[in-house]
Amino acid sequence: MNKDVQAKINQLSMLEQNIQQFSMQKQQFQSQLVEVESAEKELEGAKEAFKIISNVMVSCDKDALRKELSSKREMLNLRVESFEKQEAKLKEKAEELQKEVMEAIKEDKE
């Protein structure tokens, strides 16, 4: 196998690692998003609102907490979308590189 093909294989391996990292980070943000959405639903029926700061639970204004959660949800949605776009670009690049490697290996065998 020539050096060019080996370099492409190494690059493909790095891309796959990056894709996996992006996927894990995206999942973390999606998990946070689910928590925020759940908190928003719970807040709808609540008479009082509480917030945990460090290890202390404190009473807070329901409207202020609703705005904070809404803002956090929007930010998390943007991050998830950003990770999805970057992940898609990396996957596309990996697929192209994989095709190049397969073609080069096929040519070497012939």
Distance from first to last alpha carbon: 13 Å
Structural class comes to mainly alpha
**Global shape:** rod-shaped
At the first level of CATH, the class is Mainly Alpha
Rg computed from alpha carbons, rounded to a whole number of angstroms? 23 Å
Task: Assess the beta-strand content as a share of residues.
Answer: 5-15%
Give a description of the structure:
- This protein is mainly alpha-helical and 110 residues long.
- The chain has one domain (3-109): Orthogonal Bundle (Helix Hairpins).
- It is 83% helix and 9% strand.
- It contains two helices and two strands.
- Strands 1-2 form a two-stranded antiparallel sheet.
- Strand 1 (49-53) and strand 2 (56-60) form a beta hairpin.
- Helix 1 runs antiparallel to helix 2 (62-109).
- It starts with a helix and ends with a helix.
- The mean pLDDT is 93.
